[in-house]
Design goal:
Layout: H1 20-34, H2 53-64, H3 70-75, H4 78-87, H5 96-105, H6 112-139, H7 147-168, H8 190-205, H9 224-239, H10 245-254, H11 264-270, H12 278-306, H13 312-337, H14 366-369
């Protein structure tokens, strides 16, 4: 039965309460309205540091107007009237009553620098969350022609934000956030699985390429079986053991991969379908790993910034730890995609002869897998 609305009731309970920083912004603005001379003591913030349009407009107006004579300000409302008139151009909802409220809620005008420091800290939190969200959106935007390049650029922007916060709030030793990191998202994308299978098959056929692909690690694979098979291949080549489907099968048995649901026949079939070169498919696998790591880095930093219990110092330490993980996979991507060094013209023809290896062709699947 539908509830009959109570005409005496309102919907204020449905409005979430403001964050603590809202009240601190009020206290800061109240301090400056009460005694504008304290504006000289307020550093590290700008109008954009405030969380609401009204507070932004008020602070911008206070910055733009000359500081009134203290005696005149104590006896007249002339300067307050100027502030209200100018701020209303940006926030029309402002009123004389709200300015009076700001002054009344301020415990002490002398504490303005402390209030400003808190406003600066919360603005840093919002900046960090925004930069992390941009990184996440970029990493999953399949419409971008150069996804990795654009994602790396967003990671650099995020790093700049973290460095700026660190300059404002130098981190303390051992101040990692207590916020649990979000779990790593696992996506068994069929295209990714196909590319991983092609990498494993071509690497089994052209095992000499495996030693040159140290930039690829088991953690780059989206499927645990594929990661285990890559470990098999790298172990066999490191030991100098002949590599083919049978020796990989034997190594996989010793590593317990046949107890994870994959039978011998299935594994042999997986290693049989070759097309293209190991390096090509390895770069495709690594590219996905870069993008996935970037997205997870953004999620971690967003989680830190979204936890109100996380201090600015912890935000810096946690964000730098997350960005270090992304930097590691970025470095491997650069090694994988950098052109080989040019031969020294003084070298002899025999010394400059190209090494043997499979052709780096993209095969018929290139068009399907292009971005």
């Amino acid at each position: 039965m539908p509830r009959t609305p109570d005409p005496e009731a309102d919907d204020l309970d449905a409005v979430p309460p403001p964050h603590p920083v809202f009240h601190i912004e009020q206290a800061l603005l109240g301090a400056l309205l009460l005694d504008p001379r304290h504006l000289d003591d307020v550093t590290g913030i700008a109008p954009a540091s405030f969380s609401t349009a009204a507070h932004t407009a008020l602070f911008a107006t206070i910055l733009s107007l000359p500081v009134p004579d203290p005696v005149e300000h104590a006896t007249t409302t002339k300067w307050l009237d100027q502030v209200l008139a100018a701020a209303r151009d940006q926030a029309r909802g402002l009123s004389v009553l709200y300015l009076q409220t700001l002054i009344q809620v301020c415990p002490s005008a002398r504490h303005a620098p402390a209030y400003a420091r808190i406003v600066e800290a919360e603005h840093s939190r919002r900046r960090l969350a925004t930069a992390a969200q941009r990184l996440m959106r970029t990493a999953v935007d399949i419409s971008l022609p150069q996804r990795v390049t654009t994602t790396v650029a967003e990671a650099e922007n995020l790093t700049v934000v973290v460095d700026d916060i660190a300059a404002r709030f130098p981190p303390h030793a051992g101040s990692m956030p207590r916020t649990p990191a979000p779990p790593t998202a696992i996506h068994h994308d069929e295209e990714a699985l196909d590319e991983e299978r092609l990498l494993l098959a071509t690497a089994t056929l052209h095992a000499s390429s495996v030693g040159r692909m140290r930039w690829l690690t088991p953690g780059d694979f989206t499927h645990s079986l594929h990661a285990g098979l890559w470990q098999c291949l790298t172990a066999l080549t490191r030991r100098g053991t002949p590599v083919d489907r049978m020796t990989v099968l034997w190594e996989a048995q010793h590593r317990g991969l046949l107890t994870t649901g994959a039978g011998p026949r299935e594994l042999l079939d997986l290693l049989a379908g070759t097309s293209g070169s190991p390096e090509h498919w390895g770069e495709r696998v690594l590219q996905r790993s870069v993008l996935a790591t970037a997205h997870h880095t953004g999620r971690r930093i967003e989680a830190y910034a979204g936890d109100p219990a996380t201090t600015p110092y912890q935000l810096v330490v946690g964000s730098r730890r997350a960005l270090a993980d992304l930097s590691a996979v970025r470095t491997r991507w650069q090694h994988a995609t950098s052109p080989p060094p040019t031969d020294n013209p003084t070298r002899t023809k025999s010394a400059a002869a190209p090494r043997a290896g499979p052709p780096r062709t993209t095969a018929p699947l290139t068009a399907r897998n292009s971005r």
